[in-house]
Design brief:
Elements (H helix, E strand, L loop, with lengths): L4 E10 L2 E2 L4 E2 L1 H12 L4 E5 H6 L11 E8 L13 H10 L4 E5 L24 E5 L1 H9 L5 E2 L3 H10 L14 E5 L1 E2 L21 E2 L2 H13 L4 E6 L18 H14 L5 E4 L4 H6 L1 H14 L4 E8 L3 H6 L6 H15 L2 E2 L2 E2 L1 E9 L6 H16 L6 E6 L18 H23 L5 E9 L4 E5 L6 E4 L8 E9 L3 E6 L2 E2 L5 H4 L7 H10 L5 H8 L8 E2 L7
Parallel strand pairs: 1-4, 1-5, 3-9, 5-6, 6-7, 7-8, 9-12, 12-13, 14-17, 17-18, 21-23, 24-25
Antiparallel strand pairs: 1-2, 10-11, 15-16, 19-20, 19-22, 20-21, 22-23
Helix pairs in contact: 1-4, 1-5, 5-6, 6-7, 7-9, 9-11, 12-13
The structure holds iron/sulfur cluster.
C-alpha cells in the first residue's frame, strides 16, 4: 500500500532539542502519531536520503507532505547535515500536487551558520507553515481547523506513542538515539531568559508527566529503540521543580523519572542526558548533588551534562542576563566531577561539557583572555570536562541579541581562542578523560574509508578514527591508542596482531613504523612472547590477540 503522508526530516537543532542523525526528534514521532491517529499511513525519509537519491522524492498525488526542519544553534555534524533553506524550498517545489506543510524551528528564522543573523522569511514551495506545536497544528489542520496549535502534553503524549514505530523507517535504525522530551520552555523566561536563546519562545516551562514519558519509551522500546537521551528540556535538574527562575531540584522526582525509563525499556543500551543549568547547581548545591546522584544511579556511563556557560567574562554575563557567572560554573563543574567522575566500564560516568558563544553584547578582547584563564583553572585543578564547544552567535529575531551584539568585531580573537583551546586544553583533557587503553564499547561507524570514523551512541560521544576500512553502520568495540585535538584514534579489540592491515599496526602504542614493518614481515606471530621479542611491551598488551589468518 502506498503512503498517504510523507514526513521529510530536514533535521532540527535547538538549544534544548536535537534531531540530527543518529538522533530522531520528538517532532517527527508526534507528527507521525497524528497521522496514525487519523488513520493515515506515513512514509518517512530524511534530507540525506534525498541528497543521495533525489528520485525518492516523487510526489504522491493527493497525499500530504510535512517537512520538519530548523537549526537555531550553529553546530557541526557527522551523522547528517541539516537541510539548507534552498534545499527546503526545492523539496517543497518538487512536491507539487501534494498538500505541502512545513514545520519546526525553521519558523524562528534561518541562518547559514554561526556569526550570521537568522532571518525570518516565508519559505517558498510550501502551502502552509504549521505554527506553534507541529503535531497540534497538523491535527488541527487535518480536522479542518487552522494550521496553528498550542502545545499540550495531554494531547501529544498519545501521539508520541502512536508515532513511535516511525523510527523503524530511519536509515540508521536500530542505531538511533531517541531524543525524549520531559519539558518545554525555560524557567528563566520569567527573568527574560538569556539574550540569545530561542527556548523562551516556547513560553513558561511545562513539564511532562512521568506516565506519558513511560508510555512513550515503552512504545519506542517495543519498536526496537535501545538508545535514549532525556534531552528535550533546558535543565533536567529542574524537572517538575515548580515556579521561579532557578527552582530547587527535586531529587525524588528525578529518581522516579529514571526508574520509569528503566522499567519501560529494560533492554536499553544508552540512557543519557543533555542540558544542566550550572546556575541551578550553584544555587542549590545539596539538592542538585542528590539529583545528579539519582541520574548516575540509573543512566549509562559516558554521559554528559552540557553547561551553557557562554563566557567567563562577568560583564558579558551581566549584559546578556546569562544563567551563571564563572565562579558558579566552576563550582558546578566540581560538583559534577564529584558525583560523576568515577569510571564505569572504563569511562567516566558523567562529566560536564562547556559551551562558549562569541559575539555577545559586552564582549571585548579581554573576554577571550578571561575564557582562556578559566579553562586554564579547570586544567590546573585536575577536573574533567568532556568537551568544549565554541560557537559564534546566531541571533534570532525576537531575542535581545538580535539587535544587541558585537558580531564580527572580534573575528581574529575568536579564531585565536578556538585554536588556543584546541592546542592547550582539548588535547590535554582528552588524554585525561580517555587515556590510552580505554575501551570504547559499541562504536557505530558513520563514515567509511581507509580511516573510518565512528562514535558511540550517546550525548556528545567522542569521535573515534579507526585506521581500517570498515563498512558504514558496523558496530565494534575499540581501544584508545592515540589522541588528536578533537578525536581519538582507536583499534578494534581484540587487537589482532596477525590480521591488522600493515598501516594499522603502527598505531599499537609504542610501535614505530620500522617496528611495524618488522612485525609485518614476521607474521603470523605465535603469541605475545614473539611479539615482545620484536616490539617490547605495550600499554595494551592484555588486548593483543594472535589469531592466525585463515588459509583460503
Ligand atoms: S537558561 Fe538561558 S540558554 Fe538555557 S534554555 Fe534558558 S534562556 Fe536558554
Amino acid at each position: 500500500m502506498s503512503a498517504n503522508a510523507l514526513i521529510i526530516d530536514g533535521y532540527v537543532d535547538e538549544p534544548a532539542c536535537l534531531g540530527v542523525p543518529p538522533y530522531i526528534s520528538p517532532y517527527i514521532r508526534t507528527v507521525a502519531g497524528v497521522f496514525a491517529t487519523h488513520g493515515i499511513e506515513t512514509r518517512y525519509i530524511t534530507i540525506d536520503q534525498i541528497r543521495e537519491d533525489p528520485r525518492i522524492l516523487a510526489p504522491i498525488p493527493g497525499a500530504i507532505a510535512v517537512m520538519i526542519a530548523g537549526v537555531t544553534v550553529p553546530g557541526k555534524y557527522l551523522g547528517g547535515t541539516p537541510a539548507t533553506r534552498t534545499e527546503i524550498q526545492q523539496v517543497g517545489t518538487r512536491l507539487r500536487g501534494m498538500d505541502r506543510l512545513i514545520a519546526g524551528p525553521v519558523g524562528f528564522g534561518y541562518s547559514r551558520g554561526g556569526g550570521e543573523r537568522a532571518v525570518r522569511k516565508t519559505i517558498a514551495g510550501f502551502d502552509h507553515f504549521l505554527s506553534g506545536s507541529p503535531a497540534e497544528a497538523l491535527d488541527s489542520w487535518l480536522s479542518g481547523g487552522a494550521t496553528q496549535g498550542d502545545h499540550s502534553y495531554s494531547r501529544s503524549d498519545p501521539w508520541a506513542v502512536a508515532g513511535s514505530s516511525i523510527i523503524r523507517q530511519h536509515p540508521s535504525y536500530p542505531s538511533i538515539m531517541c531524543e525524549i522530551e520531559t519539558a518545554r520552555g525555560c524557567a528563566r523566561e520569567v527573568a527574560g531568559g538569556c539574550s540569545f536563546c530561542t527556548e523562551p519562545f516556547y513560553g513558561r516551562p511545562r513539564y511532562r508527566a512521568i506516565d506519558g514519558i513511560y508510555d512513550e519509551i515503552s512504545a519506542l522500546s517495543a519498536a526496537g529503540a535501545r538508545h535514549f537521551r532525556l534531552g528535550r528540556q533546558p535543565d533536567l535538574l529542574t524537572f517538575n521543580a515548580g515556579p521561579g527562575e532557578f527552582p530547587r531540584p527535586q531529587p525524588d522526582l528525578i529518581g522516579e523519572l529514571f526508574r520509569a525509563v528503566r522499567s519501560a525499556a529494560p533492554g536499553l543500551r544508552t540512557l543519557h542526558i543533555d542540558n544542566i543549568n550550572p546556575g541551578t547547581l550553584a544555587r542549590h548545591e545539596e539538592a542538585g548533588r542528590q539529583a545528579l546522584e539519582e541520574i548516575v544511579r540509573y543512566h549509562t556511563p559516558g554521559d554528559v551534562a552540557a553547561f551553557g556557560m557562554e563566557t567567563a567574562d562577568p560583564i558579558v554575563v551581566q549584559r546578556n542576563n546569562l544563567k551563571a557567572g564563572p565562579d558558579e560554573v566552576m563550582h558546578a563543574i566540581q560538583i559534577v566531577n564529584e558525583v560523576g567522575g568515577d569510571r564505569k566500564e572504563g569511562i567516566p560516568e558523567l562529566l560536564p561539557g562547556l559551551n562558549f558563544i562569541a559575539g555577545l553584547a559586552g564582549e571585548t578582547k579581554n573576554t577571550f583572555f578571561l575564557n582562556e584563564q578559566f579553562l586554564a583553572r579547570v586544567l590546573a585543578s585536575g577536573l574533567l570536562v568532556r568537551r568544549v564547544n565554541i560557537r559564534q552567535l546566531m541571533p534570532f529575531e525576537g531575542t535581545r541579541a538580535y539587535l544587541d551584539n558585537v558580531l564580527g568585531k572580534h573575528a581574529s580573537q575568536f579564531r585565536a581562542f578556538k585554536e588556543h583551546v584546541r592546542k592547550n586544553f582539548d588535547l590535554m583533557m582528552l588524554k585525561r578523560v580517555f587515556p590510552v587503553g580505554t575501551i570504547l564499547r559499541e562504536i557505530v561507524i558513520e563514515e567509511q574509508g581507509a580511516l573510518s570514523f565512528g562514535r558511540q551512541m550517546g550525548s556528545y560521544p567522542i569521535l573515534a578514527g579507526i585506521p581500517i576500512r570498515l563498512t558504514k553502520r558496523t558496530i565494534l568495540d575499540a581501544v584508545v591508542v592515540d589522541h588528536g585535538m578533537r578525536s581519538i584514534t582507536a583499534l578494534p579489540v581484540p587487537v589482532e596482531v596477525n590480521l591488522l592491515p600493515i598501516p594499522a599496526l603502527k598505531w599499537i602504542p609504542g610501535i614505530s613504523p620500522t617496528t611495524a614493518a618488522r612485525i609485518s614481515g614476521a607474521r603470523p606471530l605465535p603469541g605475545l612472547a614473539a611479539f615482545h621479542a620484536i616490539a617490547g611491551t605495550t600499554p595494551i598488551d592484555q588486548l593483543l590477540s594472535f589469531t592466525y589468518p585463515s588459509a583460503q
